[in-house]
Amino acid sequence: MITMAAATGLCVAGLCWRYGSGSLMRLAAIQLRDGWMLLAAVGLQVALVLGGQQPFWYSLGTLLLIGGFGLRNKHTPGIALAASGAVLNLAVMLAHGGHMPVHLGVLEWLGGTAYASGDVLAGTKGVATAANTPLALLGDWLPLPGAVTGVALWSPGDLLLLAGLLLLLARTMRGESNP
C-alpha cells in the first residue's frame, strides 16, 4: 500500500513537472462519484494490515467497495483499468482466505527470514505460498527494480492499478476533459 502511494506521488510530481503547476489545479478539480467508497476500502485494508481478525471479510468488503466505485466512475479515463487491477488483487486474496499470496521462491531470493507455506507475513496482508497455489500468478512475486528491489513485491493487479492511476493522472493533468 505504501509503495503504491509512493509510486502515485512520483507520477504526480513527474506530471506536474511536465505540465506545469496548473496541472495540480486540474487534478484538484476532478469530479469522481462516491469517493467515500474508496476511503472505506482503504480503511478496511489498513485494518487488515493492523491485524484484522477476519481477513476474508475485510477483503470481501474492500472488493465490493472498489467494484462499486469502479462502476460508478467507469467513464472516467483510467478508473476501469485501476479498478480491474484492484479486483484482481482482491480475487486472489479471497482465494487465500483474505491474504495476498507471496511466492516462497521470491521470498527466498530476496533473503531474510525463512518462511513455510501458510505463514502470515507480519506487518503485511501477505501469506507465504508455494507457486502451485490457486491463482499464484496473481499474487505478489514481482520485485521492484534496481536499488529498491527488497522494498516490496508487486502483483500483476498492482501493475494494472498503477497503469490506471497513471492514465487518470496524465489525462487530467494534461487538461483533457473527463466525461
Number of helices: 7
**Biggest beta-sheet profile:** 2 strands, parallel
Biggest sheet strand line-up: 1-2
User: How much of the sequence is in beta strands?
Assistant: 5-15%
Helix and strand composition category: mainly alpha
* Poorly predicted residue ranges: none
- Which term fits the overall shape? globular
Helix percentage range: 55-70%
Task: Explain what this protein looks like in three dimensions.
- The chain is mostly helical and 179 residues long.
- The chain has one domain.
- Helix content is 56%, strand content 7%.
- It has seven helices and four strands.
- The strands form two sheets. Strands 1-2 form a two-stranded parallel sheet. Strands 3-4 form a two-stranded antiparallel ribbon.
- Helix 6 links the parallel strand 1 and strand 2.
- Helix 4 runs antiparallel to helix 5.
- It starts with a helix and ends in a 5-residue tail after the last helix.
- The model has no long low-confidence stretch (mean pLDDT 87).
